Amino acid sequence: MPDLVLVEVADGVGRLRLNRPDKRHAINSELSRAIQDAMVRLDEDDAVVAIVIEGTDGAFCAGADMAEAMGHYETGDRRFNPSQDAATRVGASMKPVIAAIDGPAYGAGALLACSCDIRIASERSRFRFPGSEYGLVVGAVGLPRLVGGAVAKELIFTGRVVDATEAARIGLVNRTVPNEDFASAIDELARGIAAASPLALRWSKATIDAAISGGDARGLELQADLLLRGGADHMTRFGQATTRVTGRPSAS
């Protein structure tokens, strides 16, 4: 049986590729566990600065495995929700996480994408939040942070399909990229992030998340400044930047 998740690490970028193509990467309990395990590996690997989550064969993630879920519900297992477990673990990463969305991201797939920090979509991408159609609440926490309350309500109440152009316009994705340029755009973005200071990225992510959720973002930024300013990582990078700009080494 092939691995349900493929992991590669190169140039500071860890790639987590969903590998259940016969089901268009629908999330069942085994795939959920594989995603969570892979995220632990990538989070603990100091060589990984940024993480990319992607599908294969023209699909990001078609949603939850409905057949498996129904089997659990029929036996009274009302807590069964492997898709949420996977999305929660992705969202808990301290490292920048990019969703490379090429093809449909429906239901659990849309939820997984929303749990990432940055979303880049190909022109053939599609999004859908059909939870209300199935009698469930899916995406009602993460989606408003991206598109605002009124738009989130429309998408969740109707469950309609959102194409890549609209997704970029409403802020569901950062941008849409032509299909032929998609792979190179993801590589360029991921490597650009991976070239930054890992410590600064972690503190920046934590501070931004706090600002979005109403936490003590100002306190976090002040704490980060106290910890990072003048430290070895800051001084090394500051010196390198100064040399690039002035052509002379910085005074030390």
Report on the structure:
This protein has helices spanning 29-44, 66-74, 82-91, 108-114, 142-147, 149-158, 164-170, 182-194, 198-213, 217-228, 232-246; strands at residues 5-10, 13-18, 50-54, 97-101, 104-106, 118-122, 126-128, 162-163, 175-177. It is an alpha/beta fold and 252 residues long. The protein has two domains: 5-194, 2-enoyl-CoA Hydratase, Chain A, domain 1 (Alpha-Beta Complex), CATH 3.90.226; 198-246, no CATH class. It has a six-stranded mixed beta sheet with strand order 1-2-3-4-6-9, with helices on both faces. A three-stranded mixed beta sheet has the order 5-7-8. β1 (5-10) and β2 form a beta hairpin. It is globular, with a radius of gyration of 19 Å. The termini are far apart. The relative contact order is 0.10. The model has no long low-confidence stretch (mean pLDDT 93).
Question: Concise description?
Answer:
The chain is an alpha/beta fold.
Any key phrases for this structure?
2 domains, 252 residues, single chain, 48% helix, six-stranded mixed β-sheet, 2-enoyl-CoA Hydratase, Chain A, domain 1, 15% strand
Distance between the termini: 57 Å
Rg computed from alpha carbons, rounded to a whole number of angstroms: 19 Å
Low-confidence segments, given as residue ranges, are none
Average pLDDT rating: 93
Provide the domain count.
2
Instruction: Summarize the amount of helix as a percent range.
Output: 40-55%
Instruction: Characterize the biggest β-sheet.
Output: 6 strands, mixed
CATH superfamily placement of the largest domain: 2-enoyl-CoA Hydratase, Chain A, domain 1
- Secondary-structure-based class equals alpha/beta
Which CATH class of the largest domain? Answer: Alpha Beta
Beta-strand percent range: 15-25%
Q: How many H/I helical runs?
A: 11
What is the N-to-C order of secondary-structure elements (H for helix, E for strand)? EEHEHHEEHEEHHEHEHHHH
Strand order of the largest sheet: 1-2-3-4-6-9
Number of strands: 9
CATH topology of the largest domain: 2-enoyl-CoA Hydratase, Chain A, domain 1
Shape: globular
Return the CATH architecture of the largest domain.
Alpha-Beta Complex
